[in-house]
Amino acid sequence: MLIHREEFPDNTVTQAKWLLGKLVVRHTDAGLMIGRIVETEAYLHDDEAAHSFRGMTPRNRSLFLEKGHAYVYIAYGVSMMLNVSAGKAGVGTGVLLRALDPVSGIELMEKNRGIAKLRDLTRGPGRLAQAFAIDLSLQGLDLCRKGELWLAKDGHKVGKIGASKRIGITKNADPLLRFFVKDNPFVSGPGALNR
């Protein structure tokens, strides 16, 4: 079932936790893929690590859309990253989707990734984006409308949620703004952070 914008929590940290267990649905010409969100990171508007920290630019303007829009960027010139805008229009806050538990369309994910090892298909934000054919053409897409990419729910109940510092950043790295479903094999990052 499609998630409607009014269902999204207004607080970015709350939204990062709330998104756990929800579904990412990707429709391509090659087929449909679905994955359950099992790891997220919150990026706040006054956060030095956030792309919005220095204000709106052509690159990050999707992050300033009202909650429920796709913000896609290229990390290190190589990997796409999928984020969900999390605030009111003009604020500039978001949630990075770090890992998915594959639900449907696994053969297509394997083809997109060029591997057949299930655990490595969507464990980590770059792998997730590659498996789901996420690219800059999806920038700013409304994730509350069915189309090429949207967010859904199916009543799934999430077990215990863990929290840690975020991964791969140096500025404002210590706050516990990374959230994950404990004991899920598709959660990324070092084991020490996943307890």
What does this structure look like?
With 195 residues, the protein is an alpha+beta fold. The chain has a single domain, classed as 3-methyladenine DNA Glycosylase, Chain A (Roll), CATH 3.10.300.10. The chain is 11% helix and 28% strand. The protein contains three helices and eight strands, in the order H-E-E-E-E-E-H-H-E-E-E. The chain has helices spanning 12-18, 106-113, 125-131, and strands at residues 23-28, 31-43, 70-75, 79-85, 94-104, 149-152, 161-164, 178-181. Strands 1, 2, 3, 4, 5, 6, 7 and 8 form an eight-stranded antiparallel sheet that branches. The longest helix is centred in the middle third of the chain and has 8 residues, at 106-113. The radius of gyration is 15 Å and the shape is globular. The mean pLDDT is 91.
Sum up the structure in keywords.
195 residues, alpha+beta, 8-stranded antiparallel beta sheet, 3 helices, 11% helix
Offer a quick outline of the entry:
With 195 residues, the chain is α+β, with helices and mostly antiparallel strands.
CATH structural architecture: Roll
Rg from alpha-carbon coordinates: 15 Å
Q: Report the structural category.
A: alpha+beta
Question: What is the CA–CA distance across the termini?
Answer: 31 Å
**Tertiary shape:** globular
User: What do we call the CATH topology?
Assistant: 3-methyladenine DNA Glycosylase, Chain A
Strand % is 25-35%
Residues in helices, as a percent range? 10-25%
Q: Tell me the CATH superfamily.
A: Methylpurine-DNA glycosylase (MPG)
Mean of residue pLDDT? Answer: 91
| Tally of contiguous helical segments | 3
Low-pLDDT residue intervals, each spanning 5 or more residues = none
CATH class: Alpha Beta
Question: How many strand elements?
Answer: 8
Order of helices and strands: HEEEEEHHEEE
